[in-house]
Design brief:
single chain, 401 residues, alpha/beta, Alkaline Phosphatase, subunit A, 9-stranded mixed sheet, 13% strand, globular
Length: 401
């Protein structure tokens, strides 16, 4: 028997063996499977880009102020999926309702931060870095990976998207970033393919070139592993009309990739519902809720559900009153969600008051979003790591039993 360090040493000695033709050395596959086959916990972070309307997602139907603020787009009680005597799910959140009934959905109310930005780009940067008004260089998921694994570890941090998110920018780790697994390779013309597929061997005496060669080999190995994982992945589970990239995460987990943190998004500012919101918003919520419910069921099928928690957020909520276009404008406080077999389902945080809006008609935040991050870090992934990752102390929520 040999340990992980010895495996990696052998991999380094192998260099790019077999990778130039797209094959992954069997010794690499064995090492990867052994690394991923453990019971280390995984966090999946799901971004609802555009600013989801929390008030029309988790509807406080028992509060008459809600209907005064939204006389035309407020969702009537008989249309809601009731949670309890005060709240109801948007009709599109059937998947969330099923998770709620199974005790696997936690709803965190009043989430936000002080001096909120109403710019998509600025606010999302604050969420990505967990450092509002600071201009932090690295993302919170990148810093989390650096804390969990202080030395570089291949395929430890995965971002499913067309471009790398600031959230996964790391000082130590190089995130694996891909969109279409079957086409995960370097972009270039056909005439350039031979050069692009060439993997350099170690360059003795030249640290700069040797580093670039290592990056090239790592990229080729990661892309081959992801392509193979996706090719082997088959599932009978229904993820809904828009799977929202989640089957790709399930494929990587099923294949035993050693990633501890996955980051993905419902893209293109889809939740920026300024005009004619009700039907569009309900449809978008149905896509997300069905996909996340399907992902949870797939993890159960794979025997991986006890290892994985999914956290869902948006960069801000919407303004409390409806606008003249039957939509809502950029707001502040919002909901966050946690889903998982180890999650203690229920309500968390203090709901924002509908009768005590700020000067801009926004909901005042009651729960700093970094408390939810700290909960995912300290109570799920690694106790005591949140202070270093978040550059401060934030009280956790009792979401995990």
């Amino acid at each position: 028997m040999i340990n992980r360090r010895q495996w990696l040493g052998r991999l380094a000695a192998l260099g790019g063996a077999g990778v130039a033709t797209g094959a992954v050395p069997s010794i690499f596959q064995s090492a990867l499977a052994a690394e991923g086959a453990g019971q280390e916990r995984i966090l999946v972070v799901f971004e609802m880009s555009g600013g989801n309307d929390g008030l029309n997602s988790i509807v406080p139907y028992a509060d008459d102020t809600y209907y005064k603020l939204r006389p035309r787009i407020g969702i009537r009680q008989d249309k809601l999926r009731k949670l309890d005597e005060h709240y109801g799910f948007n009709p599109g959140l059937l998947g969330f309702q099923r998770l709620w009934q199974d005790g696997r959905l936690a709803i965190v109310h009043g989430v936000g931060y002080a001096q909120p930005s109403f710019s998509h780009f600025t606010s999302m940067a604050y969420w990505h870095t967990a450092a509002p008004n600071s201009g932090a260089e690295y993302g919170w998921c990148g810093r989390l990976a650096d804390t969990l694994a202080p030395t570089p570890k291949p395929n430890f941090l995965i971002n499913v998207d067309t471009t790398q998110s600031l959230a996964v920018r790391s000082r130590i780790h190089t995130p694996v970033v891909f969109d279409e697994p079957e086409r995960f390779q370097r972009l270039g013309l056909l005439q350039e393919r031979a050069m692009l597929n060439y993997v350099s061997t170690p360059v003795a005496g030249n640290p700069g070139l040797d580093y670039l060669a290592q990056v090239a080999r790592s990229a080729d190995e990661a892309s081959a592993l992801v392509r193979e994982a996706w090719a082997k992945y088959k599932t009978p589970i229904d993820y809904g009309i828009v799977p929202a990239q989640l089957p790709k995460v399930a494929a990587c987990i099923a294949a035993g990739l050693p990633a501890r943190v996955y980051y993905l998004a419902y893209r293109n500012n889809a939740f920026d519902t300024h005009v004619q919101q009700p039907d569009l918003h309900q449809r978008l919520l149905s896509y997300v809720a069905d996909a996340i419910h399907g992902f949870q069921r797939d993890l159960e099928r794979l025997g991986q559900a006890d290892r994985v928690t999914t956290m869902i957020f948006s960069e801000f909520g919407r303004r409390a009153p409806e606008n003249t276009n039957l939509g809502t404008d950029h707001g502040a406080a919002n909901n966050m969600f946690m889903v998982g077999s180890r999650v203690r389902g229920g309500h968390y945080g203090k709901p924002s008051s509908l009768s005590e809006l700020d000067a801009g008609d926004n909901l005042a935040y009651t729960t700093d979003f970094r408390r939810v991050y700290a909960t995912a870090i300290d109570n799920w992934l690694q106790p005591g790591a949140a202070k270093s990752v978040l550059k401060g102390e934030f009280e956790t929520l009792p979401i995990f039993g």
